[in-house]
Design brief:
The complex is a heterodimer of chains A (451) and B (298). Chain A has 451 residues and is of the alpha+beta class. Chain A contains 18 helices and twelve strands. The N terminus of chain A is likely disordered. The longest helix of chain B is centred in the first third of the chain and has 40 residues. Classes of the chains: A alpha+beta (451), B mainly alpha (298).
């Protein structure tokens, strides 16, 4: 038996190698569909001089429908240009775009987020300089501040489609039940906490904040007090001293202690879901949100019937020279720097942002536009109304000159803030320690991410 | 028969009833616990099916799974989707990816496993260790190099990057599983086949494959379910919407600034899990045998 085995061994080894190579033989089979497809494509050769653009965006169903409608109108206007649309939901869009940019296969025109500029265009050469396309793309419709948000290293890398800021929206129905008007100042907001507990019960809170919102609120409060941006990009660190960060931590602690916002444990009891999908928000027990004016629609839509949400005046500290708004593009568009057809891409971008037809197709579904001509068109159509538009008008009246660094919304920086506030919220550290950690940890993160 | 009845009645009553009673009690308890825990585990799935028939608002209002005002709107609107294509396109795309992927995975994994289990190839141990090492390698590490490779091949925005790699037995786990299974199969049958004049390929086809069928079915099922749920690879490799599989299509409607129509998402999820469930029940017998035999006797 063992003799037989030894004799067969060389044979077996040869067969083994042959078998190991067999998968290679499967390759042609796997390639067959490709060949068929290639034959298909050569059949459908489009008419001469055509240009094919690729455009990518993220969004929900309504955005997809509106954006597709706008593109169809554009193709009718410019029959020689066809647009291939590549859209996804929000989840995964950054991962895909990162791979595409790394692989040099990014679309000609892409929707990006403002804080992605610090990822893809650190030196200002990440995207096509839109100012060089000013002949095709009408940049005069955009005010200097909006343009400034897309400029990196003196080059216009991206153009904001709409601007947004976090503002205070309150459930007026609940406030009426408590016999209060919606807060007009920091003091009124703080005072509402005990009154809510007393008059409506311990389940009712004047405001609901996630830790991300806490970070943004604390920043606004800091900017109002100091008149400086929170992050100094040049120095790669916070402008705040450790005492300032401790005051931010104390602000959070005070809001929880005085029943202004639900504590971390109380919030966690409602599950890990989006704030607007939490039961207490839906039925009005959490009576306020510090939300982007571009996104307030989703919160209002979820409310149980019979409730009304209003925009409140933005609270200002005495003597504040700046409201500390985090006023930034709700989304931006950028053109691939390696695009073979930058002019056609600019044509499409101009159509979406400035042309009445394109503007009407999109309406205010993405955000209230910043382009002056778009605003005129939408105003004439009576589309400029509602909470989001209220927000735009409020922002225009507020002192708002401090420009925050894009690194404030860098994922690592944001997570740094959230982690520490979370530990504070769950009582793992006290206010003093949170202040020190906010100062040291965030500075360390900033030093690492800013180059 | 009467005698039998009488005889059974004649058995001593006291001990019989208590013994039987205890047994019934045990059964009731055992099944009670099983059903209770089973329901608890299945509740999210049941809830998904129930919620698919709810209007969107009701989804957050109640935790109960029975819809108060049932509607088919979720299915109708969800099937229509927010895109230019219906959900059917995405289902078809999924199968266009999965079917070839499962087939080439099974063939390549079995062949490679046969090689590892039965042949003394030089460096076999090292090669096997390397293969196992690839199981431990996080997939995301390979993402960008692979993306660049497929770009050079001109395969981007086609289904090829999604299933061609599977033709090279790249899922080390499957090879490992089949190797373990083959080790538990006695060599004598194969030796008998060799004496009868089979070559190696014939031994594999006529003797080994029928014996390891449970393992093969497990591999096919696993690959089917994993590929069905795979989100990252299609996301990276497919850019045209008309080529999206279900996993991408389901997330197309979920945005950060827009309220999500969860009833549509859940309705389409319900449709999308059906193939997996049907397949699993059809192959359940082999599937369970496949993973347990491989692990116990290995």
């Amino acid at each position: 038996m063992s003799g037989k085995r030894t004799r067969r061994r060389p044979n077996r080894a040869a067969a083994g190698i042959a078998l190991a190579l067999l998968p290679l033989a499967l390759l042609p089979l796997a390639l067959l569909p490709l060949a068929l497809r290639a034959a298909d494509a050569s059949y459908a050769t489009p008419p001469p001089q055509p240009v094919e653009l690729r455009m990518s965006w993220w969004g929900g169903n309504e955005v997809h429908r509106a954006q597709l409608a706008a593109i169809r109108r554009f193709e009718r206007r410019h029959p020689h240009i066809s647009v291939r649309t590549e859209y996804t939901g929000w989840i995964g869009h950054l991962e895909r775009l990162t791979t595409q940019i790394a692989g040099g296969t990014a679309p000609d025109l892409m929707q990006i987020n403002w804080n992605w500029l610090v990822l893809f265009a650190r030196d200002g050469r990440g995207f096509h300089d839109l100012e060089s396309l000013a002949g095709t793309l009408d940049l005069r419709q955009f005010d200097a501040r909006a343009l400034d948000m897309g400029r990196v290293g003196g080059r216009l890398n991206a153009l904001p489609a709409g601007m947004a800021a976090r503002l205070f929206y309150f459930n007026a129905t609940t406030y009426a039940k408590a016999g209060l008007r919606v807060p007009q100042s920091w003091d009124e907001l703080m005072a509402a906490g005990p009154l809510f507990r007393e008059r409506l019960g311990p389940d009712y809170y004047p405001l609901d904040l996630q830790f991300m919102d806490v970070t943004a609120l604390a920043r606004s409060w800091y900017v109002q007090r100091t008149g400086r941006s929170l992050i100094d990009e040049q120095a790669q660190r916070l402008t705040a001293r450790v005492e300032d960060m401790r005051d931010m931590a104390r602000l959070y602690q005070r809001m929880v202690d005085e029943h202004v916002i639900p504590g971390a444990r109380e919030r966690a009891a409602h599950g890990y879901v989006a704030p607007e999908e939490m039961r207490p928000w839906i039925d009005g027990r959490y009576a306020g949100t510090y939300q982007w004016n571009s996104a307030i629609g989703k919160s209002v839509e979820k409310l149980a019937p019979g409730q009304k949400v209003v925009l409140a005046p933005y609270p200002l500290q005495a003597g504040a020279r700046d409201a500390g708004l985090l006023y930034r593009p709700a989304m931006m568009f950028a053109i691939n720097r390696d695009s073979a057809h930058p002019h056609e891409a600019a044509l499409l971008l101009d159509f979406i942002l400035n042309d009445p037809q394109g503007v009407r197709a999109l309406g205010v579904k993405r955000a209230v536009p910043v382009s002056r001509r778009a605003l005129q068109v939408l105003a004439a159509d009576g589309l400029l109304a509602g909470l989001s538009w209220d927000g735009v008008r409020q922002v225009a009246t507020l002192p708002n000159v401090v420009r925050e660094s894009g690194y404030f919304e860098h994922a690592r920086v944001r997570d740094g803030f959230i982690d520490i506030f979370e530990e504070l919220g769950y009582g793992r550290i006290d206010v003093a320690e949170a202040g020190v950690r906010l100062h040291e940890d965030v500075n360390r993160i900033l030093d690492r991410v800013i180059h | 028969m009467n005698v039998a009845v009488l005889a059974s009645r004649a058995t001593p009553p006291a001990t019989g009833t208590t013994g039987e009673g205890r047994r019934t009690l045990q059964l009731v308890l055992r099944y009670g616990v099983l059903i209770g825990v089973g329901l608890l585990m299945l509740y999210p799935l049941l809830w998904m099916v129930g919620a698919a028939f709810k209007p969107n608002r009701e989804i957050f209002d109640s935790i109960g799974f029975w819809p108060q005002s049932p509607t088919l709107e979720g299915f109708v609107e969800g099937w229509r989707t927010g895109t230019e294509h219906t959900f059917g396109t995405y289902l078809l795309n999924t199968f266009e990816i999965i079917v070839p992927k499962v087939i080439v995975t099974v063939i390549s994994s079995v062949v490679v496993a046969f090689g590892f289990a039965r042949f003394r190839v030089p460096g076999r141990r090292v090669l096997f260790a390397l293969l196992i090492a690839t199981v431990l390698l996080p997939k995301s590490v390979l993402l960008i190099p692979q993306y660049l490779m497929f770009r050079e091949l001109g395969w981007l925005d086609t289904f090829l990057p999604l299933y061609v790699p599977a033709a090279f037995a790249t899922e080390g786990f499957f090879v490992f599983m089949i190797v373990q299974f083959m080790r538990s199969v006695p060599l004598e049958m194969e030796e008998a086949a060799v004496i009868d004049g089979c070559n190696s390929l014939q031994v594999l086809l006529y003797v080994v494959v029928p014996v390891i069928m449970p393992a093969i079915i497990s591999v096919a099922l696993f690959q089917f379910m994993w590929s069905m749920n795979d989100f990252l690879q299609p996301l990276i490799y497919l850019s045209s919407v008309e080529k999206y599989p279900v996993s991408l299509a389901l997330k197309l409607a979920i945005d950060v600034t827009e309220a999500t129509s969860w009833n549509q998402v859940l309705a389409m999820s319900t449709i999308a899990v059906l193939p997996s469930i049907v397949l699993f029940y059809a192959a359940q017998k082999y599937f369970v045998e496949g993973i347990t035999v491989g692990s116990v006797k290995g």
